Amino acid sequence: MQNPANIALIDQAYSLYRNPHPIHHPSSPEMVDFRSRVSHAVRTPIKFMGIFDTVGSRGIPRLNYDTETGFEWPEFYNNVVSTGVEKVYHALAIHDRFWIFEPCLASRDPRHTPSEKV
Fold first, then answer.
1. pLDDT tens per residue across span 70-104
2. Strand, helix or coil at 10?
């Protein structure tokens, strides 16, 4: 059974991450403090992360034409895959004809050093 306190903490963390206010930026002192209080000091490596057919960098599609949509606020701060992820595979639909939405492409953190194990 899920611990209700943990579920509430997940909801709080996601809500903070989605908030566009500068005080909630991942590198702000407030968010660094929040992470130090609620997370474990040991970083657990993630062996594999699969990302499928994504549009919009914060969950809302980014439009491919020059217009004000009002959907700018719900975007994530970045699309950089953490150095804690060993392998990441990103699948995009190449046959999609809905050209108005721009794909949200994940990128590697330049500090990532791939392991030699295969």
1. 555 555 667 788 888 889 888 877 766 666 666 77
2. helix
25 domain-assigned: yes
Instruction: Examine residue 104 and state whether it is found in any structural domain, yes or no.
Output: yes
* Token couple for 47: 């062996």
For residue 88, what are the contacts with CB-CB under 8 A and spacing of at least 6? 48, 49, 50, 51, 81, 106, 108
Domain range holding 23? 1-42
Q: Are residues 51 and 66 both part of a single domain?
A: yes
Rounded distance between C-alpha atoms, residue 71 and residue 56, angstroms? 10
Answering whether pTM is above 0.90, one says: no
Tens digit of each residue's pLDDT (9 = 90 or more) over 16-62: 887 878 898 888 999 999 999 998 878 788 999 998 866 654 455 55
SS3 77: coil
